[in-house]
UniProtKB/TrEMBL annotation:
Its EC number is 2.4.1.212. This is Hyaluronan synthase. The keyword Transferase applies. Keywords: Glycosyltransferase, Transferase. The gene is hyaD_4. Residues 6-170 form the Glycosyltransferase 2-like domain. PANTHER family: GLYCOSYLTRANSFERASE, GLYCOSYLTRANSFERASE EPSH-RELATED. It is an enzyme of class 2 (transferase). The keyword Cell cycle does not apply. The lineage of its organism: Bacteria, Bacillati, Bacillota, Clostridia, Lachnospirales. It comes from Anaerostipes hadrus. GO terms for molecular function: hyaluronan synthase activity. SUPFAM superfamilies: Nucleotide-diphospho-sugar transferases (SSF53448).
Length: 323
């Protein structure tokens, strides 16, 4: 018998896209699903759409709640989930109709705790013509997976994966954060003994111009830097990965400082400079770390020790390190 997958869908102001998302889940070839639609106080027709779908399909559960943000909505779904496996889907995206079948096949065959599929970024038209090869997989043990997260070989997003329930239980999303996935992913990966990655494109990330992830750089983007700072400290117990995390954070500080110089002004720019400099100062770089840097990285790092502001202005002038 198929094991139950709880699919948590946080919903807010997506009335134009919600039907497509729900339909893609309902029509999965893998049928044993608990579909939890979390209406996060949406002011449009989303609450009604959820209720109509609940009447159509008895696998669907609906939560109507006061608006609390994406993390709060996911957490509400987690409080009522009953599945053996858990999945999170964003409500303006959609999934291939065999995504769960392929991911469960891979997770069972390889005795894994997490399965990650490929995703395609799209404005609404599926462009992928790649041959789907379910049997071609990458297997990562815990420390390999943590290293892959830091090196971004495992994407820090939560929605192109399924998880064994026991590794996500009580690991709630941090409320009020702009990059909530980055605060969460490395912690859940550490709780897994094995991760399997498949090459199949199973998830379609819908690119919207009004999406929060596509906004021009703002002070809220510093949440991503805070997440990576916390991750660096968390990974200190893994010496090799810790060194990589420190190096990555050095250049991530430069990236955010450069973005601030380009897009922010007045109090926001002042706040950004103070926060980035505070994090940068707290990165414990030693001689062994610097040995792993490329020649160019060593130059940038040397200038940054004189002045972070100076190195970021130079990098901006020559278009280095930011788009």
């Amino acid at each position: 018998m198929e094991e139950l997958i709880s699919v948590i869908v946080p919903i807010y102001k997506v009335e134009a896209y919600l039907e497509r998302c729900i339909r893609s889940i309902v029509n999965q070839t893998y049928k044993n699903l608990e579909i939890i639609l979390v209406d996060d106080g949406s002011p449009d027709s989303c609450p009604d759409i959820c209720d109509v779908w609940k009447e159509k399909d008895d696998r669907i559960k609906v939560i109507h709640k006061k608006n609390g943000g994406l993390s709060d909505a996911r957490n509400a779904g987690m409080q009522i989930m009953t599945g053996t496996y858990i999945s999170y889907i964003d409500s303006d995206d959609w999934v291939a109709n065999d995504m769960y079948e392929k991911m469960m096949y891979a997770i069972k065959k390889n005795d894994a705790d997490i399965c990650e599929c490929q995703f395609e970024k799209t404005a609404g038209i599926v462009k992928s013509n790649k041959e789907q090869k379910t049997d071609k997989v990458t297997i990562l043990k815990k420390e390999e997976a943590l290293k892959a997260v830091v090196e971004e070989k495992i994407n820090p997003v939560v929605w192109n994966k399924i998880y064994k329930r026991e590794i996500v239980d009580q690991l709630y999303f941090e409320k009020g954060k702009y990059n909530e996935d980055e605060f969460w992913t490395y912690q859940v990966v550490e709780k897994a003994e094995k991760i399997v990655q498949i090459e199949d494109v199973g998830y379609y990330y819908f690119f919207r111009e009004d999406s929060i992830i596509n906004e021009t750089y703002s002070i809220r983007r510093l949440d991503a830097l805070e997440a990576r700072y916390q991750r660096m400290k968390y990974l200190e117990k893994y010496p090799e990965i810790y060194g990589i995390a420190k190096r990555q954070l050095v250049f991530n500080c430069m990236y955010h400082y450069q973005k601030g110089l380009r897009f922010l002004s007045d109090s926001d720019l002042k706040t950004l400079k103070l926060k980035v400099k505070a994090i940068y100062k707290d990165i414990p770089i030693d001689k062994n770390d610097i040995k792993e840097y490329t020649k160019k990285e060593k130059i940038w790092f040397s200038i940054s020790k004189i002045s972070l502001d100076l190195v970021c202005r130079i990098r901006n002038k020559f278009g280095y390190g930011v788009e």
